[in-house]
Amino acid sequence: MIQLLFVLLFTSLTAFSAFVAIKLPFLAWGMPKLLPGAESLYQWNGLVFGSHLVSAQILMVWFTGALLGPRRGGLAMALYLGIGLGGLPIFTNGGGFGYLSQPTFGYLATFLPAVIVVGLFARDQRFGRTWLGFFWGFALIYGFGLVYELIVRQQFFSISGWLHLGWVQVLQFLPGYLALLTLVAFVVASVRKLDAAYLGWKQRRLGDDQEPILPSA
Questions:
Q1: Average pLDDT, stretch 65-94?
Q2: Which of 132, 192, 144 shows the shortest CA–CA distance to 200?
Q3: Structural domain boundaries enclosing 174
Q4: Distance CA 114, CA 11 (A)
Q5: Of 199, 211, 201, which is closest to residue 3 (Cα–Cα)?
Q6: Phi/psi of residue 56, each to 5°?
Q7: What is the CATH number of the domain that holds 195?
């Protein structure tokens, strides 16, 4: 039951994060004209923190995969996508099956496999494995999302389209995302180590089995 509650919690947090942008000074070269996901700065209606905009949803993909693991994390993302496509306006521009025609839906669609990848890599306490999981999840989202957007915009065979959208959607944010990725991976790996140390201490002190603070992956 507790695991189901965690799944529902992370599904809800992912939906909420669609309307939150994080602004940090190191997250782009120059002032970005577009949000990742092609949302204009002037059209953004969500919460904003800092000076450079990035979507908070990538954080939820990382946290969901690392803390819930591939199965429960995948279920959380499947619920999020299913509810959104079912009609509830929990995507940035609404919801419904018609959202498939949105150029940015490819980024959302890849949340599910990205969470599974993150969960598979981030099963243990090692920072390197966690970092790799976060990186491959990020690469999967932005790689497939960019291809999907180019196809919907009918620019897949356009070199200028690849160069323009590749810069606008991915490359200008890459340094900041890698810095953010490294920070979050370090925090998650550190919390896992502290959790394991605490559990070991409790077992030695009490001599019985204790449940870990974080849900096991």
A1: 94
A2: 192
A3: 2-206
A4: 15
A5: 211
A6: -75, -10
A7: 1.10.1760.20
Q: Is 94 inside any structural domain?
A: yes
Sequence letter at residue 209: D
Q: Which amino acid is at 144?
A: F
> What is the token pair recorded at 125?
């306490």
How many structural domains does the chain have?
Answer: 1
Q: What share of the chain is helix, strand, coil (3-state, %, to 5)?
A: 65, 5, 30
pLDDT digits (tens, 9 = 90+) for 172-199: 778 778 888 999 999 999 988 887 777 7
Which tokens hold the place of 74?
Answer: 């995948």
- pLDDT tens digits along 107-162: 999 999 999 999 999 877 889 999 999 999 999 999 999 999 999 999 999 999 99
Q: Is residue 159 part of a domain?
A: yes
φ/ψ region of 50 (left if φ > 0, alpha if ψ in -120 to 50, else beta) reads left
Reported as a single tens digit per residue, the pLDDT across 34-67 is 444 434 444 555 555 545 567 789 999 999 999 9
The 3-state DSSP class for residue 67 equals helix
CA-to-CA dists, residue 130 to 61, 74, 77, 84, 100, angstroms: 13, 17, 19, 29, 31
Q: Report pLDDT for 96.
A: 93
Could you tell me which of 113, 54, 56 has the C-alpha nearest to residue 81?
113
Place of tokens 């509830």: 88
- pTM, whole model, 2 decimals? 0.80
